[in-house]
Amino acid sequence: MPSSWGLTIMVLLFGMAVGSFLNVVVFRLPLRESVIRPGSRCLSCGAALTALDLVPVFSYIFLGGKCRHCGRRFSARYMIVELVTGLVAVACLIVIGPNLYAVAVFAMICVLTAIFFIDLDWMIIPDEMVIALAGFGLVINALGIWRGEVGELVHFSERTGPATYAVSLPTSIVGMLVGAAVFFFIGWVSERIIKRPTMGGGDVKLAGAMGALLGPGYQFLAFFLYAIFVGAAIGLVIMALGKHKGRGYIPFGPMLALSGAAMLLFPAELTALLMQVYT
């Protein structure tokens, strides 16, 4: 068995390798291209990239951020995504532990990372990724590896005359419906107030998927409010730096992705922090 440091390094390297694949997904998926074939190529000269060019993080550093064949510079974002994904993998190991649930959380954060950059670049959130997140939520709820209770349910009851009727639904399904409905309603109302679209269909679907993961309670509320805080802060910074250049819309998906990733890693802590502020 590897030592704790050895395990951490292995997880870091694995996470960086996954980050390299995420770069391919972010570039190709919006174009509806295969993320497997053909192999990676330089976008400037078309030369096929070999293992020497594709070692996560280290190839970028050793090659000075340039193509080995034509000398054209690569975006530093490729290395940043690889490094951040590796650090996220290590965070999952430290915060959650070496178990299957940590792997599931890491996978979900990887999906959110891809959503972050795709929405930032293209202002779209692919349905495949939303479905993957929602599927994780349904499976985790069914297996009971989120809150520890297998098939955790939300109970509804109504008294009609002398009888009381009750129905119980999985928290993942209720959370999905509530999350999507809340965001749809907010977008519908705000669009009629300011007379322009404020929330895309992808945001509504992503909110539903996060509702499946977090349930319909305080954790989803915390996810929503943290996304607003992040969005407001980023919007103010962009306006202060004059980088907006008249664009009419800043995508909300990246803020949702950031908030969602944080809530997956620290659900109890971040929810408690928010409740302390508001109580």
Strand content: 5-15%
What's the shape? globular
Low-confidence runs of at least 5 consecutive residues: none
Kindly state the number of beta strands: 2
Tally of alpha and pi helices = 11
Average pLDDT confidence is 86
- Biggest sheet: strand arrangement: 1-2
Q: Rg to the nearest angstrom?
A: 21 Å
- Structural class of the helix and strand makeup? mainly alpha
> What is the CA-CA span between the terminal residues?
47 Å
**Major β-sheet annotation:** 2 strands, antiparallel
Q: What number of domains?
A: 2
Order of helices and strands: HHHHHHEEHHHHH
Name the helicity range: 55-70%
Please provide a written account of the structure:
This protein is mainly alpha-helical and 279 residues long. It folds into 2 domains: 1-95, no CATH class; 124-279, no CATH class. Helices cover 65% and strands 6% of the residues. Strands 1-2 form a two-stranded antiparallel ribbon. The mean pLDDT is 86.
